[in-house]
Design goal:
The chain is an alpha/beta fold. Strands 3, 4, 5, 6, 7, 8, 11, 12, 16 and 17 form a 10-stranded mixed β-sheet that branches. Strand 19 (509-514), helix 15 (518-530) and strand 20 form a beta-alpha-beta unit. Helix 5 packs across helix 23 (672-688) and helix 7 (313-322) crosses helix 9 (385-392). The relative contact order is 0.08.
Length: 705
Amino acid sequence: GPAARRCSGVGGGEMRFPRDRRGVVARATDSPHPEADVIFEQIRKLQEENEKLKQDLGDAAKAVLDKVTEELPLPEGKAAEAKKALSYLGGASSKDAYLGMTMPYFGDGELQADFSKYDKVDAARAKVASAEAAKGEHSSTSTGVEPRPPPEYTKTETPMSIVFVSSEVAPWSKTGGLADVCGSLPRELVKRGHRVMVVSPKYITGKAEDRLFEASFDTNSNTKVGCFGDSHEVGFYHQVKEGVDFVFVSHECFKRQGGLYGDSYGVYGDNQFRYTLLSHAACEAPLLINFGENLGTYGDEVVFVANDWHAGLVPLLVASKYRPWGTYKNARTVTTIHNILHQGAEPATTFGNLGVPDDWYSCLEYQYPEHMRAHELDLGLVVNILKGAIATSDRVLTVSQGYAKEICTPTGGCGLETMLEERRHRLDGVVNGIDMQEWNPTSDQHCAAGFDVSDLSGKLECKRALQKEMGLEVRDDVPLMGFIGRLDWQKGPDLIQAAISEMMNEDVQLIMLGSGLEELESFMQWAEGTYTDKFRGWVGFNVAMSHRITAGCDILLMPSRFEPCGLNQLYAMRYGTLPIAHATGGLKDTITRHNPYAQDDPAVAVAAAIASDREDGNREAADMGPGTGWLFNDMDKYSFMSCVSNACKLYHENPKMWRAMQIQAMSQDLSWYNAALKWEKVFEWAKIDPPHCSPKEHCHNNEWQ
């Protein structure tokens, strides 16, 4: 046997290692296989033929490849990259560059000319394939669903005189959704045959919006109102728009540089005075302002709609100052809560400034719990204007049914839940509508292309244009997400901040638009620098950009901690953008959860949308639809990311179901007319019942029922 090397091992033993071997062939003593020479000869011939192919290819083949590269429909600036890719093997100028590529042998002379004909055939086939691809894209965006016709306006059989009182009204003054409600809803009520007035301050803030007041004229109906220990003269300016009487209260306190409620130093210290003045003036306007021949004044048989705490003294003044003396005895008051977080609470010592009789103090009295007081000696006593409005109005209305339920709980009531629970039998919720002309995907001038539910090819163009504008890679196969809103605690952008790393692990793109807390603005800047190919942030607010994000995105994120109604999700669904939102308030009322077991039939989606619009609709048909978005119950990043992941998975794997969800979202009736019919019912209920606060009959000492 082979010799072995020896070495000392552990314990004095021996270990054996075989000698080095240099290979079986080197050590073999047998003669080569008789067929080996034949194989070696074949290899040599193949090498020679390969060299011949390299020589024949030459410059002619390179010229053909250059021609193919030039004829390719490449974007500008990409031709050089294509040539580089074609010449990758062996270098751009080497004949070896074309070895290993699946190309035919071009040959010489006539044979080479024949191959050039095939180039033309391939080019024609490429054009046909491109046309087929475009046709396929059109078929994927064409739904075959006709847009729902606009609502048919019918006149009511019981017209009313309605007076809205609001601290802001679009387009003259606006900071949020309240202005949209008071600017749009009255127009729809007028179409129903009602007579509607909107009373709001005439702000002069030194901004461009001031010019909008130039179209109003002085009614010469100045009057003096008593509050804050004096008599204050106010004027009324009138402007008619689409049949609505817009009345603007003029006083020096509404003329100052800054915002509507504050400036860079904080809220104005005299806001209680400003909106006490507004409430007193609003009570006088229907009695004083003569709107011309055959119209006259509104009179005292009206329905007052007091919006938020700024107009909260109106129900209290009607009940305490007017009704005991026979004025407004047939009027009704409705308090509308758009955000219960703002209640108009001021120290109890200011009660005497409000111009309310002393025996009505208990309606406004409120005491903060101990943990909310400034110090141990602070009793926490305040006058709460919103509390007074709830206590004395005939009905209370919120901007969604979900929010109406939430404000009756300790979590959502902000200290007023007990009173609201007591008045729950007269508490209603109606979801806001949207301006269908301003937010119209077929004619939105802010967007790259128009579209509707019958053909969504324009939405795809809007997406590409938005990606290009924001510097993102233009991709149709990636879900583009958007966020539009204030960067504060309520709107929940900090949830996006907490989940940003998990989101960026998905195949998504994200665009955020908003301003607010400095740390969240800094987060947007950091995220754009960190995830340069997936994230873009716009610090600030831009109306045109909000329209483009709404139209171009596939998904809108709304992780609000609380949302009385919300408008962005309504705008998004109008444009076929599916929302992901926290299941709270109006978001829960307006977004239908995705049903993974639904059919992807467009007819089912349309039927579900129509059924969900009607209060007496077919609930079975509504539940069988694919849904309009995703809702998460818990305000944490895990629940949020579960919805994001599910939405991305559906986008990538089931485009038919995605399209069905878009169809259901876009087929809903989101108009203000639909909302106006529900508001009208609330007004009718208020008039059926006797006034909530009225003096006892045959009593002369102002005792109250």
